[in-house]
């Protein structure tokens, strides 16, 4: 069935359970047979793996697959769609401490153990988010005679993909092959358990560890009490410890990378941890649950977060921090020796299974992987156990995004015990390991922003309405940014992010002119930008313009101009301002002289040797007294 982002959320694509079965006594596998219509075939397991077993060969705890589907992800540019196809075949598969448990689920075929509830285009990423519902194939055991020994734990939805050329990478310390194209953006971890068995369903010869999501995420103590005769105080609707109860269901989002116009095909397998809670049929209504023995033995969740990233191209001393958070049900659990069903403490485990080593590999950045052993900070059971790593650019990596891998290796190595007496072939898989992919950005050499000394000034100050005023600030300094430096001006600065967008004026020098239209107070803002776009902090000046002076007096104080070589000077007998320009267009203030009480010489910059003032000038007294025009003879200035 196909479901697109435009379809209703109530449309469901269902999957019928197929799988392998082992007889209730575990002695002989059932023969191959045709399943109900649409279910494909139920196949005999070729070599189930049993490792956590009692000396007499009875299974104690296990994990196996009970649902399988293939997903086709499509983005045609207009909408995204996902098609879920029922499994064609399924075979038993187990990993080092696990055994196929599909016999329990095929006794009552499940026709909707997997369903797509909604499909949406990715929010904040290029891809698709698919809400997938998983349902336990057995109903809740509400009847007094109903068996209650089929609750499972740590249900994982594993995504299988063979990756893409150039995006499969081997990571130390185990040279594990990971698809770094990041099929599943929000993976709870990566697992290589069952990889060989899963290849019989969906071949992935180029990839060994696959991303997964946890469907059962009630990581609280819930209704489990190790002092209870059954372990679970509620056998009908138990909670906590990542239990996936009979009759239960859970919907979680899967976030897939998917480019516009791309179609991809992946597989989804549901795996579940299971413990033999009833030693005989009579116990099926009153089973005994041993937790965390029945839980997933490797870490069930690993997150890796890059923090305080200061990795810089070519700088071997640049660093970033990586926080690794681990959840492991077995952490701190006591091992009973011997462990016996029915008599050992219900919170005891057969063999110690804790976090042994956490290793971080970041090829191209780290020269070699870095590791920490033993427990981290926190318990790792009902809260995170964290590890802090310092990533140093030892290899002098250039600009780019580098995939890294966290490897959480369990202290338990090959938990299979001797004494198996059944017609099954155990397989040694060595250490139990959970992985997590992360990405570290190596940045270009940092470009520090220019610096402006906030000495913004206005001439004249206060400015006059309708007359251009000169706005000036000291030149910006920049120790590393390339030239040129530009100055951006905002003539009505409000302190908002949208200021300077666009700038009211852009200049190559730290000065500009602005004509104030009225006497309303306004804030002038200026900032500097270097050749790489780095910006200084803005500098501001609040100004209130005043009305321009009138020119009406017929007489004006006399003055003379004398040349001093580099400057000219004005000799006067009054407190004066010097104005110049065309009276018909308004007067522009050239100089503002401080009040004087006696004859003084004031330097006037801007005149070169041999240059005269020229034009019309007005000498205006600062006390509002006599004003009037004065015509300079425009003669060359005599040398002194």
Walk me through this protein's architecture.
- This protein is an all-beta fold and 640 residues long.
- It has helices at residues 102-106, 195-198, and strands at residues 2-4, 33-34, 41-42, 61-75, 80-86, 89-90, 114-121, 127-135, 152-160, 168-171, 176-179, 189-191, 210-214, 243-244, 249-257, 263-275, 301-307, 319-327, 355-361, 370-373, 385-392, 400-413, 431-442, 457-459, 468-472, 486-490, 505-507, 511-515, 522-529, 539-543, 560-563, 568-572, 576-580, 588-592, 600-604, 616-621, 629-631.
- A hairpin with a 7-residue loop joins strand 33 and strand 34 (588-592).
- The protein is elongated, with a radius of gyration of 40 Å.
Q: Would you spell out the secondary-structure blueprint of this structure?
A:
Elements: E1 2-4, E2 33-34, E3 41-42, E4 61-75, E5 80-86, E6 89-90, H1 102-106, E7 114-121, E8 127-135, E9 152-160, E10 168-171, E11 176-179, E12 189-191, H2 195-198, E13 210-214, E14 243-244, E15 249-257, E16 263-275, E17 301-307, E18 319-327, E19 355-361, E20 370-373, E21 385-392, E22 400-413, E23 431-442, E24 457-459, E25 468-472, E26 486-490, E27 505-507, E28 511-515, E29 522-529, E30 539-543, E31 560-563, E32 568-572, E33 576-580, E34 588-592, E35 600-604, E36 616-621, E37 629-631
| Structural class estimated from helices and strands | mainly beta
Shape: elongated
* Total number of helices: 2
Q: Please bin the fraction of helical residues.
A: under 10%
The share of residues in extended strands comes to 35-45%
CA-atom Rg in angstroms:
40 Å
Q: What's the N-to-C terminus distance?
A: 101 Å
The biggest beta sheet reads:
12 strands, antiparallel
Number of strands: 37
Overall mean confidence score, pLDDT: 73
Number of domains: 3
The low-confidence runs, each spanning 5 or more residues with pLDDT under 50, are 1-63, 87-109, 416-430, 551-640
């Amino acid at each position: 069935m196909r479901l697109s982002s435009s379809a209703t959320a109530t449309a469901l694509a269902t999957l019928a359970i197929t799988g392998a079965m082992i007889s209730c006594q575990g002695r002989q596998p059932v023969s191959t047979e045709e399943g109900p219509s649409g279910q494909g075939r139920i196949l005999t397991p070729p070599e189930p793996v049993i490792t956590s077993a009692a000396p007499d060969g009875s299974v104690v705890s296990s994990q196996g697959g009970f649902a399988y589907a293939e997903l086709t992800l499509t983005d045609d540019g207009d909408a995204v769609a996902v098609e879920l196809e029922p499994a064609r075949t399924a075979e038993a598969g187990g990993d080092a401490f696990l055994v196929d448990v599909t016999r329990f689920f095929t006794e009552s075929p499940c026709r909707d153990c997997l369903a797509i509830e909604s499909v949406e285009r990715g929010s904040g990423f290029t891809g698709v988010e698919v809400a997938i519902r998983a349902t336990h194939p057995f109903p809740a055991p509400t009847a007094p005679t109903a068996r209650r020994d089929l609750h499972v734990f740590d249900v994982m939805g594993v995504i299988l993909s063979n990756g893409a050329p150039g995006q499969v990478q081997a990571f130390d310390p185990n040279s594990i092959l990971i698809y770094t194209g990041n099929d599943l953006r929000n993976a709870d971890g990566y697992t290589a358990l069952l990889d060989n068995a899963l290849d019989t369903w969906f071949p992935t010869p180029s990839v060994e560890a696959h991303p997964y999501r946890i469907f059962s995420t009630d990581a609280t103590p819930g209704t489990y009490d190790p002092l209870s005769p059954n372990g679970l105080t509620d056998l009908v609707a138990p909670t906590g410890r990542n239990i996936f109860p009979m009759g239960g269901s859970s919907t979680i989002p899967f976030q897939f990378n998917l480019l516009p116009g791309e179609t991809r095909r992946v597989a989804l397998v549901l795996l579940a941890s299971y413990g033999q809670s009833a030693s005989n049929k009579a116990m099926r209504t009153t089973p005994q649950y041993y937790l965390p023995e029945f839980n997933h033995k490797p870490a069930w969740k690993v997150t890796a977060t890059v923090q305080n990233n200061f990795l810089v191209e070519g700088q071997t001393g640049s660093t970033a921090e990586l926080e690794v958070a681990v959840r492991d049900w077995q952490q701190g659990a006591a091992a009973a020796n011997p462990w016996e069903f029915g008599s050992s403490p219900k919170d005891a485990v057969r063999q110690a299974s804790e976090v042994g080593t956490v290793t971080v590999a970041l090829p191209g950045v780290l020269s070699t992987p870095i590791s920490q052993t033993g427990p981290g900070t926190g318990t790792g059971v009902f809260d995170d156990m964290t590890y802090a790593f310092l990533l140093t650019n030892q290899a002098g990596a250039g600009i780019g995004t580098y995939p890294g891998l966290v490897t959480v290796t369990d202290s338990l190595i090959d938990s299979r015990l001797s004494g198996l007496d059944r017609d099954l072939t155990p397989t040694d898989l060595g250490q139990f390991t959970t992985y997590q992919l992360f990405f570290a950005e190596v940045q270009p050499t940092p470009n520090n922003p220019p610096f402006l000394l906030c000495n913004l000034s206005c001439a004249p100050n206060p400015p006059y309405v309708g007359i251009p005023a000169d706005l000036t600030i000291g030149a910006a300094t920049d120790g590393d940014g390339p030239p040129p430096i530009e100055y951006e001006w905002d003539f009505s600065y409000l302190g908002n992010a949208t200021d300077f967008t666009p700038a009211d004026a852009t200049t190559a020098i730290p000065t500009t002119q602005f004509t104030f239209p009225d006497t309303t107070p306004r804030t002038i803002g200026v900032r500097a930008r270097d050749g790489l776009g780095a910006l200084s902090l803005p500098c501001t000046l609040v100004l209130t313009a005043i009305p321009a002076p009138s020119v009406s007096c017929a007489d004006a104080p006399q003055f003379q101009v004398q040349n001093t070589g580099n400057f000219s000077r004005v000799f006067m007998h009054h407190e004066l301002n010097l104005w110049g320009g065309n009276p018909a267009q308004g007067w522009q203030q050239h100089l503002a002289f401080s009040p004087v009480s006696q004859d003084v010489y004031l330097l006037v910059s801007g005149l070169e040797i041999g240059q005269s003032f020229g034009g019309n000038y007005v000498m205006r007294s600062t006390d509002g007294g006599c004003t009037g025009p004065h015509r300079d003879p425009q003669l060359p200035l005599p040398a002194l």
